[in-house]
Every structure is written in structure tokens, then in C-alpha cells.
Protein 1
Amino acid sequence: MDWMKLRTIMLAGLALTAILSYGQAPDASADARIARGKYLAEEVAKCQDCHTPKTEKGDFIKSQWMKGATLDFTPAAPMMGWHSKSVDITSTSALWARWQVAGMTKFLETGKNPRGNKAGPPMPDYTMNHEDADAITAYLKSLP
Ligand code: HEC
């Protein structure tokens, strides 16, 4: 075997080792969980549509991401228990201080808050699987 071939094989081996150890690092998997939670929250469930305030032109106010908002829509017909405001769901909120990770995960899995009640409309009552609820909770926990 010539030197160039041997060198290529050795470099490939090193790269593979680097990839494998990166994949196993706890930080990498925590980051992956947050990234998945961000995708589910922002692209699938679109929590920000109701939980992030908007400017008059309708653009999200990025500095208040998921900090609770006055909704910019109302029900077509009057609806019992309708909430015109959503709450702050970031890690620094009063809600987070009460619910913590366990409460938020359970709420997304069962649709019930720690008091055993469903949230009022138009908050959807989600019944997500544990993995998805866990990922969204990790993402919300990463929000200041
Ligand atoms: C269609 C609008 C809408 C969407 C989408 C939405 N929410 Fe809400 N959310 C609300 C409103 C309005 C409230 C206030 C309801 C209440 O206080 O009972 C609320 C309340 C909550 C609460 C507090 C519930 C309680 O019992 O105190 C949490 C936690 C929450 N939302 C998380 C989320 C998450 C996470 C997502 C995305 C996965 C999301 N919401 C998507 C409108 C929405």
C-alpha cells in the first residue's frame, strides 16, 4: 500500500471517530432535542402565532418571542371561556416557575395543566407523544 492510500484511510478513520464521539456527547443530544422542539413549536404547532406579540404591520416582535400576546383574532360567534390573551411560556415566566419541566411536558402530553384543568380556547389541548412534548419543553426552557 502506498503512503497516500494509507494516509487517506487514516484520515477517514479520524474523521469517523470525531463524528461518533460528537454524536455521543451529551451537549450534542441536548442541542438536537432543542432543535427538534423548535421545529415542532415554530413550524408545526405554530405556538408563536398566539404567544408572540406582533407589530401593527403584523410582524413578530422578536425580542418578545413567546412572551405572551393579545390575540389578533376573535371567534366568529361568541364562545364560552374565550381568552383574548395568551401567556408567557418562556423559561423566565411566572408559569414556568410554577410548572417546571415536568408540568409543561405533562400539559403537552395530556392537555391538562398541573391543576388538572384544560386551558381555555383558543389554546389547543394537545396530546403529544412523550418525545415531542419533551423536545418542545426543552426548546421553551432554552428561551430567555
Ligand atoms: C391558537 C392560538 C394558540 C396556539 C397555536 C397556542 N396557544 Fe398556548 N395559549 C393560547 C391562549 C389564548 C392561552 C390562554 C388560555 C388560558 O389561560 O386558559 C394559552 C395558554 C397556554 C399555556 C398555559 C395554559 C394554562 O392552563 O395556564 C401554555 C403552557 C401554552 N399555552 C403553551 C403553548 C404551546 C407550547 C404551544 C405550541 C405547541 C401553544 N401554546 C400554542 C393560545 C394558543
Protein 2
Amino acid sequence: MVSGLVFITIQLLRSVKNDSNHIQDSIISKIVSTPDSVMDVLKNTCFDCHSNNTIYPWYSNVQPIGWLIARHIRKGREELNFSEFGSYTPRRQLSKLTGIANSISDGIMPLSSYKLMHKNSILSTYEKEQLIKWAQQARDSLSVKN
Ligand code: HEC
């Protein structure tokens, strides 16, 4: 009974949503050459936590799941925000591109809780190779410039 009331009450405490529809000039594809096929994979598998454009699932309106999702998005964006990549220092851009390649080859990204709920975010071997190659090439092109 009490837990039922708590459940109903916490539904009123919503997190602020991260869903700017605006495409920023600092988005990664405007900084390093990014084929559409790579951008599609990033959008489908990383952008919900690492950009200013999250597509929220219905269950994000159910607390406390919504809070956990909001926390992943907040922490994910602190570490890496594809929408604001252009505002990073050259040094940070290079280290993030290395981080992207590593997180994919180590299989730690996307987070497993996310893969559980978004089956289409599980990267195929081909997609992994494609993303790693892209991140390495992007890194090389930036280190030539800087
Ligand atoms: C469900 C949310 C979520 C998704 C989806 C997700 N990440 Fe993350 N990511 C996080 C969180 C949260 C962190 C912060 C570290 C931690 O708590 O594990 C993080 C950290 C990172 C880091 C930082 C590591 C570092 O050392 O700088 C990189 C790189 C990264 N993610 C890349 C990706 C890539 C690439 C994808 C898509 C293939 C992706 N992530 C998908 C939530 C997510």
C-alpha cells in the first residue's frame, strides 16, 4: 500500500528531457569527415546518451527507470557529446576518438543495459570495424592538422 503510494508519487518527479532538435555546428560530422553510414550507426547506437538529441523510450516516463536513464545521459554527455565535439580542444578531440575506438573494440559501448532494451543497438562485426576504422582515420586527419 505504502509502496504503491510512493510509486504513484514519484511519477510526478520527472527529469528534464534532453531533446534539442537543433543540429549544431559543433556536431562531429562537421569537424571530421564522417560517411552517412557511420553517422547512422552513431545515431542509432550512441546518440541517445552522447548527444543533445535523445530519443526517449516510453518507459523513461516510469520512475525510477526514468531517473536511471537521465543519469546515464548526464554522465554519458559529460564524457563525450557528439553534438558538441567541435567545442573540444584538439587534444580532447584526439583522446575522445581513441576512446571511441577502444570502447567499441572492448565491447563496453553501448552500455549493456541499453543493448538489452534496444536490440538494434548491438553492433555487428562489420559495424564495429567500420566505426573503429572511421575513428582511427578521423584521429589521423586531426593529428595532421594540429
Ligand atoms: C545508455 C547510454 C549510453 C549509450 C547508448 C552509449 N554510451 Fe558511451 N557512455 C555512457 C556513460 C554513462 C559513460 C560514462 C562512463 C561510465 O559510467 O561507464 C560513457 C562513456 C563513454 C566514453 C568515454 C570513455 C572515455 O574514456 O573517454 C566513450 C568513448 C563512449 N562512451 C563511447 C560510446 C559509443 C561510441 C557509443 C555507441 C556505439 C556509446 N558510447 C553508447 C553511456 C552510454
